[in-house]
Specification:
By secondary structure, this protein is an alpha+beta fold. It is built from 22 helices and 25 strands. The strands form eight sheets. Strands 16, 17, 18, 19, 22 and 25 form a six-stranded antiparallel β-sheet that branches. Strand 6 and strand 7 form a beta hairpin. Helix 16 runs antiparallel to helix 18. The termini are far apart.
Length: 731
Amino acid sequence: MFNRTLITSALPYANGFIHLGHLAGAYLPADMYARFQRLSGRDVLYVCGSDEHGVAITIAAEKKGVTPQEIINMYHFSNKEAFDKFNMTFDIYSRTSEALHHETAREFFADFLEKGFLIEREEEQFYDSKLNMFLPDRYVEGVCPNCSYDHARGDQCDSCGKYYNQLELLSPRSTVSGEVPVVKKTTHWYMRFDMFQEFLSNYIESHSADWKDNVLQQTRSWLNQGMSERAITRDLTWGVKIDGIGNIEPEKVVGKVLYVWFDAVLGYISATKIWAAAQNQAAGKEIQDWKTWWQTKDTEYIAFIGKDNIVFHTLIFPALLHGRGDNYILPENVPANEFLNLEGQKFSKSRNWSIDVIDFMKEFPQADKIDALRYSLAMGLPENKDSDFTWKDFQSRNNNELSAIFGNFINRTLQFIIKNFESKVPLLSENLKSIPTKWKHLLSLLSEDQFIDKSEFPEFNENDWLLIESIHGYLNKIISNYEKFRFRDAVTETMNIARAANKYFNDEQPWKTIKSNPEQAAKTLFVCSQLAYSLSILFAPVVPNACKKIQGFFSQEASVGEVNTNPGAINYFDQALNMILPQGLQINTPEILFAQIEDAIIEAQIAKLGFRETEQPIKETEPLICIDDFKKIKLRTAKIISAENIKKSKKLIKLQVDLGDGDKRQILAGIAEHYTPDQLIGKTIVVVANLEPAKLMGLESQGMLLAANTADGKLSIISFEDEIGVGAEVR
């Protein structure tokens, strides 16, 4: 059993701005997980920072005519600001240019040198005689020896993808001076990863049952090829220097630094050291030990990355930790994501096909739009395969889900209470005052899967039973999905609770019972107010701004999983469905949580991606119909009174619908892949009432419901949340 959770996200490279693809890959999932863990009462440390060494930094500096330090300062602070505005809850956002990081990386190098894990090797490399410097791979261009592409890089061809030694490059030239380089001998140190082959194989197979398939496949592919020696140093002036280590001859280390792949992953450890030192300084005494997080077996380490970093965190970093010894723990899981595309194409800064986070924040600084971005990305995370972000989907998620479902329930509940109950959580009548206690007892019985005698709970009607049974099931799925790193499913199940809450409000019809049965109306709104607070806990990992506001409406202390906000280690998730708001609690004036996003705003953003009128695909003109054709179609509102899956059919659900005036019909709808039956019961939908009956799977269908295709290919039925009766004509 683990007592604490260490979380890391891949260190973003400080030579560019982070974009939405980066958020979906390694940062939003990690932040959601960190918030969930904190809200579950667990001790969490979430570490990240800037990766600030390597040749790409020096190239960027040379192009801009500035120093590498100026480059990393610009991107480090800009990216940190973007992360802050996106509500990332890092305990520390450090950087690898820190002196303590250099010290840590040098210690690892010295230890490996002493243990014989490093091998010294003299080799030939291109040298720029004009600038008196060895040329790293990215400082050399030439003709690819495989496909003859004439702008091939020193180690890989961008045209055919072939890897090679830089000396194999034809017609080489220095990208710095333009001169033809000469070949000179230099010394480098190589890490003997072949010595860790058996250890790594055993480590990976020990996680064969709990790691994602994409992670296992890529890792096993590398292992099957055999772990080989890998250069750990390079000729460069920018980075962690290795002079003065061990008995290395001083002349051999002139102009040598640690290869960035080696020192970057160690940034997690150095950042933890810096964090612990700062905590201790603030407290005035030592209360935090970084070793608690890295060298004790009761710490669970989860490494969040994109798929381009998988082997560095499943093989390279574990080998370094194991080689160092000192009881260093290894990643317990590496839930790597695939890539996020943008409007069907890969992110590309050069083609202006990108959305930098800092630019999004300038366009949409409002708290609800930042939440909407988090939600939209969460619902489309590339967890198992590449996915796509589109502006239309962003708009749809905001308008049709956050606003129309979640925000709608919060708003209608609070506005009804303000109007009818003097802005206070309703008081329960004498015969209903036991509801909070019995509600909690019911939840425990459901959790233990015990038999429930409904006669012992006369306070609850049929709608109450449907509500508590459904939301209890959803909560279990939410928790399970978070723990299994299925974040899309966790958020989907959370929204299902909001849907169930709306259904309960509709079925209870408090706008009627407030006049005919005030006691019943008070109970309904008491339950709904508790659900509103529950949703503010359950949605906190994904839309923290809105959830903090909801908790403020109820004058509750903010509990949205931020750093150092749960000192009592309360398991808010485990208690999320309990009724904790006292009767008579004053409700503060609410505000709209999610404003609608208009089409014009989205169209303007799409236009910024570089679309030109001539590039737009020509759409075929839809055949037009006259008004008389349309009048032939009779659309009516209908209420779904029952729903069940059809055996042997993956797509069909059998619905019984009420069109009013005794007109009840059976409709077969192909929506089983998008809805479960219990999500449908009670919904008011639109049906084609004069459609000729048809037989499907041997059953008769007496109409058709209306649904729309969402941007991600899902079906969303057309339904109404407001007080529209059945049988109403839709025109």
